[in-house]
Every structure is written in C-alpha cells, then in structure tokens.
Amino acid sequence: MLISIIFLLVLSPFVSVAPAAEVFRFSSYYGDHMVLQKAPAKAVVWGFGQTGAEVVVSLSEPHKGSASSALVVNGIWRTTLNPVEAGGPYNLTASQNTTKSSITLTDVLFGDIWICSGQSNMAFTVSQLINATEELAMASKFPNVRIFQAALEQSSKELIDLAGVEVPWSRPTAKLLGGKPFSHFSAVCWLFGRYLYDTLNYPIGIVETCWGGTPVEAWSSPRALHKCGLKSSESSVPYSPLPVESNLLLNVSEKWKSSVLWNAMIHPLLNMTITGAIWYQGEDNTNYNRDDYNCSFPGMIDDWRMAFHEGSGGQTALDFPFGFVQLSTFRRKDQHDGFREIRWHQTADYGFAPNERMKNTFMAVAIDLPDDKSPWGSIHPEYKRDVAHRLVLGARAVAYGEKNVSFQGPFPSQIVLNQFFIRIVFNQDIKVTLDDDFFEICCFEEKKCGSDENWLPSSIIKHGLNYVFISIPPPCSDASVKAVRYLWTDWPCKFKACPIYSSDGLLPAPPFILAITKQ
Ligand SMILES: *[C@@H]1O[C@H](CO)[C@@H](O)[C@H](O)[C@H]1NC(C)=O
Ligand SMILES: *[C@@H]1O[C@H](CO)[C@@H](O)[C@H](O)[C@H]1NC(C)=O
Ligand SMILES: *[C@@H]1O[C@H](CO)[C@@H](O)[C@H](O)[C@H]1NC(C)=O
Ligand SMILES: *[C@@H]1O[C@H](CO)[C@@H](O)[C@H](O)[C@H]1NC(C)=O
Ligand SMILES: *[C@@H]1O[C@H](CO)[C@@H](O)[C@H](O)[C@H]1NC(C)=O
Ligand SMILES: *[C@@H]1O[C@H](CO)[C@@H](O)[C@H](O)[C@H]1NC(C)=O
Ligand SMILES: *[C@@H]1O[C@H](CO)[C@@H](O)[C@H](O)[C@H]1NC(C)=O
Question: What does UniProt give as the signal peptide span (predicted)?
C-alpha cells in the first residue's frame, strides 16, 4: 500500500492530471530495475515529450553505439531497440533535443517478459501461500526475477498508458511479495517467474495485471466480444469495488462492464514487447455467459495476440504462448455450479491444450488440488506451488520447445465398445491410483445426455499400461452407449488423488466428456 501511495504521489502530476503531455518522460511501465524483452525480439520503448522534438534512446556499454531515435508525434515518442541478448544490468537513457534533457533508467535487464492476468486466484498473494515465510525469505535470492504490477483501474475507453501502478519495477523483496491478501504480489505469477528462472537462468520480468471477481468479458476488447455475439457493454450498473470476490456467491459479474479492464489494464501494455502470458480466471464465468466461454476465452487469446503483435510493431509474436490454469474446485456437493462446464470450455471443448483451436497454449490442470480448509475460502485453494509447477512444465514444452518435458496428463486417444465393457485407450502410459466410480456413461439419445439423471456411474474393471476398461451398467448395452465422461462434477477427487495420472504419477488426466462414434 505504502508503495502505491508513494508512487501515485510521484506520478500524479503527470498521470492523473493528464495535460502535461509535453513533460519528457517514459510511459508508466518503464522504470529502474525493469526487464526489457531480450533478443531475438526487439524491445519497444516509448514515452511522452514535446511534439516535434527528437528523442534518442541509448543503452550503456557495450551497446552504447546502437542508439535509436524517434520524433515526438502528438506528445508521444516510441523507439524499437536493436536486439540485445539476455543479461545486464544496463542504463537506458533517453535524450530530447529541444530541452537538451535526458532521463535514465538504471539497473535494466534483458530477458523474457510474461504477463500474468485473471481474477482472484491470480491475485492471491505470496503471503497467502502455505509456508509463506519460507517463500518470502527466498525473495532476495532471485534478483534477476523482476516484478511489476498494474494498479486496479477500469476505464470505458482504451487508455494509452496505465492509470496507476501498484508495484513499480522492482527487485523482489519479502515486503513487496508479501503484501496484504489479494494485494501484492501474485503467488502464481511469482512462482511461475521464479521456477522459470531456475530452468532458463536468465532474467525474467513478470507483469501482474489482474483483479479478483472479474469475468472474461471485462478483459476482452469489444472486437473480441462481438465475434462471440456478446454485447460490448452488458451492464450499466456502476462498479463498486470489492476487496475479494465473494466466497459464497459468484454473482458479482453484473457489476462489471465489458471491456473495462481491457481498456485500463491490458491496452496500455500492448506496446511492450513480451514473451507470453499466463491466466487464472473462469470462476466468475461459471454463472455469467457460461455457455459462451468456449468462444469468449479462446477469442480473447486470439485478440490479445493480434493486439500485442500490432502494438509492438510486430515484435511480440502473433502466436505468443499463452498458459492458463484449468479451474480447481469450489463446492464439494453441488454438481450444478458450472465449474465442470467452464473447465471444458477453457479448452474450447477439446479437453486438453494446446489443440486445433488453441494453438501454442498450455494448461495446468488443478482439479485434483481441492482445499476445503483454505483460510481464503475453498474457491481459493492454497496449492499454488503445484499450479505454478504445472504451468512451468507447459511453458518449457510449449513456449521454450524443450523436447523431453512431459506437461500434459493422459487423454483418451481411442474409445472402443466391447460387449461387456468400454475400453478407453490413453495417449500415454497411465498410473491408476484407485478404481472408484469417476466415469459415467450416457446411453440415451444425445439430447437426453444434457441431463445429469441420464448418466450412469461406471467403474474401472481392469487397467493396463495405457488403457482402462470401464463397465457398462444396465440398462445400457454396448449398442446404446452414446457418451462417456470423467471427473464431471465440481469436486471429484481428494488432494492429488484422482484415479488416473501420467505414469510418473504427477500429472492428472483432465476431465472430459466425449461422444462415442460407432466403429
Ligand atoms: C548507471 O548509472 C549510474 C549513475 O546514475 C552509474 O552509477 C552506473 O555505473 C551506471 N551503470 C552502467 C551499467 O552504466
Ligand atoms: C530537434 O530535432 C528535430 C527533428 O530532427 C528538429 O526539427 C529540431 O530542429 C531539433 N531541435 C533542436 C533544438 O535541436
Ligand atoms: C511447509 O513446511 C513444512 C516444514 O518445512 C513442510 O513439512 C511442509 O511440507 C510444507 N508444506 C508445503 C505445502 O510446502
Ligand atoms: C444473482 O444475480 C441474478 C441476476 O441479477 C439474480 O436474479 C440472483 O438473485 C442473484 N443471486 C444471488 C444469490 O444473489
Ligand atoms: C460452446 O458450448 C455450447 C454449450 O455449452 C455449445 O452449444 C456451443 O456449440 C459451443 N460453441 C463452440 C464454439 O464450441
Ligand atoms: C500502442 O499500440 C496501439 C495499438 O497498436 C496503438 O494504437 C498506440 O498508438 C500505440 N501507442 C504508442 C505509444 O505507440
Ligand atoms: C527424457 O526424460 C526421461 C525421463 O525423465 C529420461 O529418462 C531420459 O533420459 C530423457 N531423455 C533425454 C534425451 O533427455
């Protein structure tokens, strides 16, 4: 809090009271201790200045020779640096010829930038973790993982620059990471950055821009919403901030106007060159435009990719890697709270990621990480280390192309009907930890499979290296089986005890619902 107050005081003459566009400065998210995107991409650097002036941007040795310059147009200058390999620290200086003034950012590193966005499970702070003290004590051992956090702001128009900064670019400290619950700094974002640093060994910049209790529509541009047939402003109810999303009612969506966070917390960042993004959101859509999430979520990813690519002048990849956390659990008994549908829709109804519709994505499955003892409510499981580990496996495989990294749990590759059982063959070897009734089958016409009462529990009767046999309970027969589903409730498993895992026991098979085609 203190930090944000100080920062606002410093910036307020320039940011809140907008007119001083001629003041020569960097935009809000360029600062001392920052990470700029490393080679082969080129970092974009921009700011404000006197219209008509020339601004020259240069790095300290050994890159002093390669300065880039820009004219200030409509009070804004923008340069693209030559590619710089990972490393640092450097000083980055911008000089404006008309005022003969220069401004310098110190302790700048080059590395990979990841955006972290979503709702409260992304906002969940390091201080809220189990054994937070241990994690916080480690902060200063990672001076090359740099953190930045946008302030909670919303806007009805697309903003050019952030309206506020919660944590300016900083080296991590226990104090910055260990803010009040849901303030700063995101546990999933931090752990993702820290684990990634462990495997890459070069600087990582993590940018937190998230807000508890928010639906995907708030983070989506009107353009993206339109493509899914969603109105660009669904609600006219003024927003009243809640510190944390309600634990009992997921009914806060109505308070959010579409696109307000896209406008204020994503659009300003588009001009920065980034490596990728991670996302933990969906709870708030279990009760709000749920059936559209299979369009709105993949659509938002497409739109962000296009916009970051364009905003960085082509430096951010058009298909930049996008990782997300599949929803964990909320209510133990309730089968109708929409979590299973959102989990499925998060994958564009494929069940796994990446897939045809969602290329270059990766998913951390969290259905086996329930936490009914979480002091933050069961909707906020504390097991963020597991989530971050699984995300980093996905990033290593998908974003960094590491060949030998297993990051997906088993998924059916073939379902074969036999007279007395159904054989489900998986795309990898499996470990079966228990043989309970986690499968269900529907043997009515397709329409009726929409209704839970027409699903019958089916048990694993046999399993092998990469397959299970599940039963066909009466009155179903092999000829009548239409569909099979797995883990199709809000809270199917105990902690890390779903029935089917990868052979090393680490990655759970994600939930699925699959129609059976006759052979
Ligand atoms: C950056 O500038 C500071 C003074 O502002 C100086 O002490 C430091 O040595 C410079 N660092 C580099 C890498 O040039
Ligand atoms: C600054 O650079 C601009 C663009 O090159 C030029 O038009 C202007 O005369 C320069 N001003 C000064 C004071 O050098
Ligand atoms: C917390 O720390 C204790 C003691 O070091 C350890 O036994 C336990 O496994 C840790 N829990 C987690 C979730 O890391
Ligand atoms: C949630 O919002 C809907 C629509 O405004 C309303 O009808 C319903 O009563 C609300 N539910 C709760 C539990 O507040
Ligand atoms: C999304 O899911 C709904 C049902 O929840 C379905 O009717 C629709 O066809 C799906 N749309 C896409 C694009 O997959
Ligand atoms: C940032 O990118 C957006 C989208 O391409 C563009 O409209 C805007 O002018 C850019 N801002 C700056 C400062 O270059
Ligand atoms: C790939 O991973 C497996 C299991 O961890 C290991 O046994 C094997 O040596 C690895 N292969 C290569 C080429 O790194």
Answer: 1-20
- The ligand 4 atom at the shortest distance from the C-alpha of residue 287 is 1
Q: Is the pLDDT of residue 252 over 80?
A: no
Q: Per-residue pLDDT averaged across 13-31, rounded? A: 71
CA distance 61 to 66: 10
Give the closest ligand to the alpha carbon of residue 248.
Answer: 4
Delimit the domains of the chain by residue range: 2-106, 110-399, 412-518
Question: What is the pairing mode between strands 87-96 and 101-118?
Answer: antiparallel
Does ligand 4 lie within 6 Å of residue 17's CB atom?
no
Give 207-249 pLDDT, tens digit per residue.
999 999 899 999 999 999 999 999 776 544 444 444 344 433 4
Candidates 126, 130, 131, 138: which one to mutate for ligand 3, based on the most atoms within 8 Å of Cβ? 131
The fourth-level CATH superfamily of domain 2-106 is: Immunoglobulins (2.60.40.10)
Please tell me the number of the ligand nearest to residue 102's CA: 1
The pair of three-digit structure tokens given for residue 517, joined into one six-digit string? 């085609």
pLDDT, tens digit, 9 for 90 and up, residues 400-423: 999 999 999 999 999 999 888 999
Q: What is the CATH number of domain 110-399?
A: 3.40.50.1110
Alpha-carbon distance 394 to 280, whole Å? 14
Contact 43, 35 (CB under 8 A): no
Question: Band of the pLDDT at 435, cuts 50, 70, 90?
Answer: low
Please indicate whether the domains covering 2-106 and 110-399 agree at the CATH topology level: no
Q: How far is CA 342 from CA 79, 225, 331, 338, 451, in A?
A: 41, 17, 14, 6, 17
The model's confidence at residue 64, banded by pLDDT at 50, 70 and 90, is confident
Region of 261 please: left (phi>0), alpha (psi -120 to 50) or beta.
alpha
